[in-house]
Amino acid sequence: MGVRVTLPGLGQWKPQGNCQASCPVARARSGGFSVCASLLAILISTATVPAGLSAQTSMTPQTPAQSPAPSPAQPARTWQWTLTNLTRIESWHFFEPPPAGGDPDYALVANRFRFGVSRTWLRFDLNAAAQYVQFGGLPTGAVGPGPLGTGALYYDHSGRTTSRQIYLRTINVAARLPRGVRLQAGRFGYTSGSESSSGRQKVEAVKRARVDSRLIGEFEWSLYQRAFDGVRGDVDRKRWHLTAAWLRPTQGGFEESAGASLSGIDVAVATMTLRPDVLLPATDLALFAAHYDDDRPVSARPDNTGLSTSRVDVAIPTFGASAVGSTSAGRGDADWLAWFAGQAGSWYGQPHRAWSLAIEAGYQWKTRWQPWVRAGYLHASGDPDAADARHGTFFPMLPTVRKYSFTTAYAPMNLRDAFAEVILRPSPRATVRADVRRLDLAEAADRWYAGSGATQQRGTSFGYAGRRSGGATELGTVIEGAADVAVARRWSVNGFVGVIHGGAVVRSVFAGDWLRFLYLESVLQF
Q1: Closest-CA residue to 169 (of 133, 196, 134)
Q2: 125, 173 Cβ separation under 8 angstroms
C-alpha cells in the first residue's frame, strides 16, 4: 500500500518501492538490521515531528504534485534531501498443504531505509536515491506445493532468513525544454497509466488506484521493488499528453541482488492521453502500446503446456485504451472506468493471442466520512487448450500486481474477478477500506497464476508461476480490510488483513481451503 507524504517546500512524495538506503554504517553485511534500527531510533529522537502530516495510501490516491517553480525569492538551484524508513511485520497462514507439504504458518519482519537527493536547475533536474533492505525471520520451510506466501519467495531468492542488500535505486537527469517537452535518461521509476494528469481530483484518484501499474510498474509493495534503466520523452499540451520510452527493468521484487539490470528484457512503450472534454465529456482517455521482448537464460515456462525450456522466448506487443471519468451527481460524485488491452506476438514459438478487460463504477457521497462505494469486473483471458499451437493467457508484463491482488495469492492472468468495495474517511488523518471479491479462472484447462513479472536475470524464476486447476474454475471468495492513519506529520501507520476461502481449484491442490494474510507498517519520512 503506497503512502503519499506532503512536506513543506517539497510537494507531495510517494514511495516508489525501490527506496534504497545509503546508510554508510550499514554497508557491513552483518548486523545491518540492528544498525538501521539504531539509526532510525536516532532520527526519531533528534527530529522534530510537526503535527498535521498529510498521508495518503493507494486507497485514496491523489494527483501527484508537480515540483513547484522557484519563486523570485528562491535561488534557481536548490538541493533537496530525503530520508525514509518503512518497517513491516507480515503474518501468513497459507492454504494448508497436503501431508509432507511445507509449513504455511510464519511471521517475518522487514525494514527499508531510503536516502535520496535531488537538485534543480532552471532547465535540468538531477535525482538519485540509494536503499537498504533487511529482513528477519524469513521462513525456511514454506514451500510445497509452490511458495506459501511472499516470505517463501524472499527466502528462495536469497537462501537465508536475513535477506539484505544495499543498492542504487535511482539516478537520472531530466531536461525541461520549450513547448512542454521533457526528456529523462538514467535509472528511474515508471508506472503505466500515470504518464499525465487529468487535472481532476476524482479522476486522478481512480486512475492511481485502478489503472496505474496494470501493465508496467515498480513492484512498489515488495521490499526490494524494481526500477528501469532507459530513456523517456514527454510532450505536454493543454488538451493532450504524449509519452514514449524505452525501458530495461532492474532486478528486485523478491530478489536481494536488487539493482542489477535485466539485460535480457527490453520494453518499448508509448501513450497518448486526451484530457477530459477533449473527446469524451468529463473523461480522461488514453491510448497505449507496448512491446515486451524477453530472452533471459531462465529455465521456467509459466503456462499450461508442461514443457521444459532453457531460456525465455517471449515477444509480445500490447495495444489498448483506458477511459476514466467523473461528474457531480446528486449529493456526490459518480465515477467510471473502462480498460482494455489486446495482445499478439510470440510465446515460446507459439502464436500469442490474449486480452483483458476491466469495467468499474463508483459513487462517493459528500457527507460525513465521505463514503465511496465502488464495484467492478475484470476478465483476463486464459488458454483453453494446452495441446494446440496457440497461447491464450493474458500476460501483464511487469505490473505491480498487489494493487489488484491485495492478498498477493493470484495474478490477473486467466482470471475473472468481480468485486465490491467501500472506502471511508472517518477523519482527515484516517482512511479505511473493505473489499469482497469473487474469483474464478477464465479457463479450466489453464492454470492459477501468481507473480508480478521478472525479478532476476537468470535462474529458475520467470516472475510468474502457475498451479494446476484440477479441471475447475472456482478459485475462491476474498474478504479484505485495510486502514491507514497519519499519526503525526512525518509518521503514518497502515495495516491490512485478507482472508480467502478457496474453491474447487484450491481444494484440488491443498488440503485446507482457508488463507489468512495480515501486515502492519510504519512509515517515517524526513
Answers
A1: 133
A2: yes
CA distance 359 to 354: 17
Helices (H), 310-410: none
Between CA 479 and CA 466 the distance in angstroms is 23
Q: Please, which residues have CB within 8 angstroms of residue 448's CB and are 6 or more apart in sequence?
A: 410, 414, 441, 466, 467, 468, 469, 475, 505, 509
Residues 78, 264: Cα–Cα separation, whole Å = 38
Q: Would you call 154 helix, strand, or coil by DSSP? A: helix
At 406, the amino acid letter reads F
Please answer whether residues 102 and 144 qualify as being in contact, where contact means their C-beta atoms are separated by less than 8 angstroms. yes
For residue 53 the three cell numbers come to 502530516
> What domains lie within the chain, and their CATH numbers?
3-495+502-525 (2.40.160.100)
User: What is each CA distance from 364 to 92, 165, 334, 428, in whole angstroms?
Assistant: 33, 43, 7, 16
Cis amide prior to 249 (ω within 30 degrees):
no
- The answer to whether the beta carbons of residues 386 and 305 sit under 8 Å apart is yes
CA separation for the pair 422, 352 (Å, rounded) = 37
Place of cell 482527515: 428
Residue with cell 516472475: 463
Cα separation, 522 vs 44, in Å, equals 13
Cell of 74: 528562491
Q: Cα separation of 139 and 119, whole Å? A: 42
Q: Residue 88 is placed in which grid cell?
A: 513491516
The pTM for the full model equals 0.85
pLDDT per residue as tens, the chain (526 positions): 333 333 223 233 333 333 333 333 333 333 333 333 333 333 333 333 333 333 333 444 333 333 333 333 444 468 999 999 999 999 999 999 999 999 999 999 999 999 999 999 999 999 999 999 999 999 999 999 999 999 999 999 999 999 999 999 999 999 999 999 999 999 999 999 999 999 999 999 999 999 999 999 999 999 999 999 999 999 999 999 999 999 999 999 999 999 999 999 999 999 999 999 999 999 999 999 999 999 999 999 999 999 999 999 999 999 999 999 999 999 999 999 999 999 999 999 999 999 999 999 999 999 999 999 999 999 999 999 999 999 999 999 999 999 999 999 999 999 999 999 999 999 999 999 999 999 999 999 999 999 999 999 999 999 999 999 999 999 999 999 999 999 999 999 999 999 999 999 999 999 999 999 999 999 999 9
161: its cell numbers: 532468513
DSSP classification of residue 367: S
Quick one: DSSP state of residue 472? -
Q: Which amino acid is at 13?
A: W
Q: Which three cell numbers stand for residue 462?
A: 520467470
